[in-house]
Every structure is written in C-alpha cells, then in structure tokens.
Amino acid sequence: MKALTPLRLLAALAFSGFAISTQAADFTVAYQTTVDPAKVAQADGAYEKASKSKIDWRKFDSGAEVITAVASGDVQIGYVGSSPLAAAATRQLPVETFLIATQIGAAEALVARNGSGINSPQDLVGKKVAVPFVSTGHYSLLAALKHWNIDPKKVEIVNLAPPAIIAAWQRGDIDATYVWDPALGKAKESGNVLITSGELSKLGAPTFDAWIVRKDFAEKHPEIVSAFAKTTLDAYAAYRKDPKAWLADKDNVAKVVKLSGAKAEDVPVLLEGNVFPLASDQVTALGEPTTKAITNTAGFLKEQGKVDAVLADYSPYVSNQFVK
User: Fold this and answer.
1) What global pTM score does this model have?
2) Cβ distance 100 to 240 under 8 Å?
C-alpha cells in the first residue's frame, strides 16, 4: 500500500469529512399495507436517495402498533390513521404530523359476510364484528353505529389485526369487519359492503391517514423530514397528473401490489377511493383543518371511553413546516 503524503492525507481527510457531512442519519420507517402512489417511490429507493440515508422499512398491521413503536423510539417516522394519531396526541407522546397521506374514502369499509344474516345495518345487533381497536376503522365503525342509532354494546366488537381478520373471516368466525386492504379485498370476495369511510365522511365523520415523526428526530434532522415529505408528494403528483396513464404502467401497479398485498385488479378502485393531497393543499391542511379533525376524533374517542380526556390544544402535534 502506498503511503500518503501530507498533501494526499489532507485531501483524504477533507473528502472523508465531506462524505460524513452529506450522509444523513439512518432511520427506521413504519409503513402499512395501504394502496397509494408513494409505494412506487418506496420500491424504487427514492426515499433513500432523497434523504441520503439508509432506511429500515418495517411493515405494521395497524396504527396502534406503529404508535407503540414510535413511542418506544424504535421507529422515527410512521404511517398512522387519524384515530390512533388522536389517541397518541391525547397521551401527549412526542410526535407531530408532518404530512397528510390520504383522506380516506372507499379504501376502508364495513363488510358483512355472505350467509351471516346481515342484510341491513340493524342486523348487526348480536353479530360479531372484527376491527383493529383504536384504528380509523374502529372510529368509523363506531361512527356508523351511532349514525344508525345502534348501541355498540349490542354488537360483539372484537379486536383483531388485519391478518387475523382474514383468517377469522375464512373460518367463518366473524360476521362482519371494518378494515382496509388487503383484508378488505378478501372480505369483499364473499361479503357485501354496508358503508365506506368516504360515505361516513359525508355524514360528518371523516378519517385520514398521516405521516408522523418523533419530535426529537425532526428537530435534529429537519432536512430528512422535508425530503421524505417531498418524495411522497412527488409520487402523488405523478399519479394525479394522469391517473389513467399511471395505472397503465404495469410496473407501477406491480410495485403497489408487492408492498400492499392488494390484488392488481383492485388497485385502480382503491386509488380512486382516496384523495392524495398535493403540496399546495398540504400547507393549509396541516393547520387548523387537521388540528380540528384530531380534536373532534379525540372527543369521539373520549365519548366511547377509549381515552380519558381531551386536550385543550392539539396544534403542537401538527406542523406544516416540512411541506413549505
């Protein structure tokens, strides 16, 4: 090995320092099996390239599990629904919402199994309905029952994660479920949709998914959070520019299928069933609208006995600085 001259040594040290300064911190991201355009960016390694980091992507089955991982410090950035987000903020966990991932429409729904005897909402009384507790599906289920004037105590609501819901559905152990894909797709194969989250939104019970970040990580690495947000929004813009052309690209659909578990033929409907806010919409959304939605959701959760109290102000848990 050739010895380094003082000049070469200085140059090597300078280069090494430059490499360290441009290499951002490695971090862990909790994602879920939602069907969204950003799954393509995830599959392509676009997030790693934008953040100049190594990312450990971990799949979770529910927002409640994501919140637990983020609270423990094992995960720095996570994908959650508005219900677990409201519960986390109410517990005053050190997190903040930095991006609205989607405004949920037909991608979450209440499905009754064929042969269960459920032909109308009132038939839910006395039946077994599975849903992941403290999820957007759970919130929507309770909102639907309230809309139909059905006492939740008269329905056997059981707490199951999506994979367990699929297994229970196939065994015939449950009569209905409020869930998202891929479990939703499985249920719809032998069941009927009673109501979707999009329909509930019009009735005054909107739900959304969001990307959250630990506050300590965001304060130390704001450029990473901004890069993560921009990568997501670029993926949304690519889809919304021409949805038909985007879906015509079989490579796009294949990547979404791989990371979501949904069927290729279901991807178009699931994408159309949600709204993916663009950058211009995010700045406004990540203010009073989101703060109000979290406050209202927390109030509903308290009413249902899922949280003990509602905070006076949820604005510390929402930030638009990373999308400006």
Assistant:
1) 0.83
2) no
